Every structure is written in C-alpha cells, then in structure tokens.
Amino acid sequence: MKSQDLLDQINAQINKCSGCRLCKVRIKAVPGEGPVGSLLAFVGEAPGANEDRSGTPFCGRAGDLLDRLLIMIGVKRSQIWVGNVLKCRPPENRGPMVDEVRACRTYLEKQLELIGPRLVIPLGKFATDHFIPEARISQVKGIPVRSGGFLIYPVYHPAAALRSSAVLAELEKDFKKIPAVLSADPHQFPIVGGSKISENQVSLF
Ligand code: URA
Asked: Which residues form the Uracil-DNA glycosylase-like domain (predicted)?
C-alpha cells in the first residue's frame, strides 16, 4: 500500500479512536493535515475548541498566526503537515494527562514515519518536551537537534506569541531561520538522547 494511503488509514483510525477518556468528550478528533513527503511537520499540544468543532488543526487565532509565519518564509499550509501530540481536545483546555499521551503516542510516531519530514517543529513547551524530554523550551527553542531519527527544531507556541510581543518577536526570529536549517547538512547538529519517538527511526541517521 502507498504511504499516503497508509497515512489516510491512520487518520481514519484516529477519527474513530476510543483509546482514552477524551473520545467521550470530543466533538471531532483532529488527526492532523498534510501530505506524505512534507518537508516540515509542525506539532502542537492538543486541539482547542475551534479544532474540536472543525476537525482541522490550528484553525483558530493561533492557526492564523501560524499561517502568517508560514507566508513570511514562503511556505503554504498545503505544503506542510500540521498536527498535535494529542488528537482530541482535553476538556476546558486542561493539559494532557500522561495516560492520554500514552494512548495517542503511536499515532504521531506512525504519522511522522510515513510523512518523513526533513524537519519536525514542536510548537511550545509541551510538544518540545514530548520530543526532547530533558529540554527546557527557553533553552532549546531556535536550536536544531537530532533526536529519535528526526531533526527537531523547537519554537514557541503561536498561542503564547499572541499573549506576548516579546515571545512573538522570538517566534518570528526562529521562523526566519527555518529555510537555512532545512538546507543545512543535518549531521552538523548535535544528537540528544531520550526521545519518545520510536527507536527504529534512529537508523535514519
Ligand atoms: N493549539 C494547539 O496546540 N493545537 C491546535 O491544533 C490548536 C491550538
């Protein structure tokens, strides 16, 4: 089966998933959007209220800012993959729970394996911690590292940038570096351990 068909199949499984308590309170699951072969994969924390209603990732104000940042670097949403660590909205926008992340984890692993992005961009603290558990976002944002077979480039979350002009300035600065990171030789970037991404991805490096 083609990778795109397999990705569509995983997305269909996510839409029907009953792997944790969030399936009982969601309106729609949000599998993520974007084609196999996307150079960039952006990973947020979890769907919010707008995403829960529409089934589309980053479709609210944070998504509008993400689109604006993408335009700034000459990239269209249709050319990239956008998704989240959790595929269903936690009620009242509370943080994801450990067992919910555990129940969802293989979906993101399989999605990234099939998409094969050149750069994975965790948006914000939670997603950064998912890929680089030992990292603090303020220390690693804007710095590419290799972890779990992927080149990871954490940046601040667009929602945080909507609340602070200082964070927005940092986010814009880090976005402007994305084209250079993409065209650089990934081997020049340090490897950090402890990724929660599946171990077989290590072979990519
Ligand atoms: N914030 C996220 O982390 N993900 C979304 O899809 C929307 C807002």
From this structure: 31-176
Q: What is the pLDDT of residues 67-124, one digit of tens each?
A: 999 999 999 999 999 999 999 999 998 999 999 999 999 999 999 999 999 999 999 9
Cite the beta strand spans of 22-178 per DSSP E. Answer: 40-44, 81-84, 119-122, 145-147, 150-152
pLDDT at 122: 98
Q: What residues contact residue 18 under an 8 Å CB cut-off, 6+ apart? A: none
Which of 58, 100, 128, 156 for a ligand 1 pocket mutation test, highest count of atoms within 8 Å of Cβ? Answer: 58
To the question of pTM greater than 0.85 for the whole model, the response is: yes
Residue 140: both structure tokens together: 């690693």
Question: Ligand 1 pocket test: which of 84, 89, 100, 128 has the largest number of ligand atoms within 8 Å of its C-beta?
Answer: 84
**Which domains does the chain carry?**
3-193 (3.40.470.10)
Q: How many CB atoms lie within 10 A of CB 147?
A: 25
Instruction: Decide if 174 contacts 152 (C-beta within 8 A).
Output: no
Distances (CA, A) of 195 to 12, 63, 74, 118, 120: 26, 26, 30, 17, 13
Which H or E element spans position 71? helix 61-72
